[in-house]
Structure formats: structure tokens, C-alpha cells
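Protocol step 4 of 6: record predicted structures for both targets in the notebook before any analysis. Target 1:
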Amino acid sequence: MSDHAPTSTTPTASTLAERADEPTIGQLVADASRDVSALIQNEIALAKSEIRVSAKAGGMGVALFAAAGFLLLLAVIMISVAFAYFISMTGLDLAWSFLIVFFLYTLIAGLLGFIGYKKVTKVRPPERAIHQAQETKNALMQRG
């Protein structure tokens, strides 16, 4: 006979109580899923809040740029009138002075338009990128 006490494989009341306190795998998965869902929702709420603040600041910046552009346009008009009156002080009729200012602006606009046209004609398509995309397309078509 053996001197060892027989080990019982049946659970006792204390081990059953301990197991009842431990969550099951299903409960753990459900808890993890709920926590991940809450985390994602909180991250989305944070991103929305940050975007809202950023969009407000961006909108205010655009409005201020628009106001600055409008005031600059008014300033150009005022300096044009002043320039025409300055020319008329030389003894030239006021109508001719305004006509000179008009032709000066027309000349500047024509010059800027010509320079812009020359710059635009130098624009070329991205030939290397197009070639690479075509090679990628051909390689994928050969595989399929």
C-alpha cells in the first residue's frame, strides 16, 4: 500500500468559488471588444474636436486673407487715382492723366500675361512617372 494520501480530482467548494470569480474567455473577449470600441469612439471624438478647432482657425484665416485682399484692391484704386492727379499737376488734362494710368496698367497686365504664358508652356507631363505606371500596369497584367 502506498503511504501517500490519495489526491482528489474533484473540485472543492473553495476552488469552485475562485473559478466563479475568474471571468470566462467569452467575457474577456466581450470586455476587450467593448474597451476597443470605446477607445476608437473616444479617438474619433478627439479627432473631430481637433478638426473643428483647426477648421475654425483656418476659416478665420481665410476670412482675414480675403479682407486683406479687398483692402489691397482698394489701395491700388486709390494709388491709381492719386497717380492720375499727380500727372495732371504737370499741366495735362485730368482725362488724359487717367488714360495714361489705364494704359500703364494695361501694359503691366500684358507683360505679366506674356511672362505667365511663357512659364505655362514650359510645363511638361511627368514622363518618368507615367512610364513607371505603365510598366507597373503591364507587369500586373502579365501576372493575371
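Target 2:
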Amino acid sequence: MKPIGKYIIINKIVEQVKTDSGLILSDDEATTFRYKKAEVVKVGTEVTAIADGDIIYYDRNTGHTMIIDETTYSVITERDVVVVDSPDGDSAYTSDKPCQCN
């Protein structure tokens, strides 16, 4: 599978959300956060600042779901991504590619 243009295929990551005081939020409370975490499966032909395997945070109100080969994926655009993190969790991710997310 190969997305076209600025589309990105992702797998959503379900996280257990914990407050600073150690309380674990329910799924209903966690859905109030605007941004969700995901792993990039495949980037489109025109995506420059994101690579396959990157961990990203994206706007939860965007994109749509597709089933490809009996596996469920979400499809978003490059401009829906607000943070790119390295796959090993190092938040000091750097890239030599300029972000063209306008």
C-alpha cells in the first residue's frame, strides 16, 4: 500500500493516561485531550517531514478509518500532525527535512 500526496497511514496507540498526581483517567476522560498518539505505517509521496515508523501526535478530530487486508488503519494528512517523536521515545527528534505543513 502506498498513500498518495500528503496522506499518512497510521496505527493509533492507545495509552493509559495518568495525571501528575498518579490518577489514571478513564477512557471517557482521556478523550477530552485534543491530540492522540500514533505510529506512522506509511507516508505519502509528498510527505517530507515525517518518516515511516515515527511516533506522532495528531489532531483527534481529523482523518478517517480504512480496512486494508483485514487490518484497520487511520488515514490523516501531514498538516494534521503537530508533533513528531522518534520511534525510541526520544523527544529530541531532529530531521534534516523542512516541515511544509501549510
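Step 5 preliminary note on target 2. The chain has one domain: 7-85. The longest helix spans residues 27-30.
Proceed to step 6 after PI sign-off.
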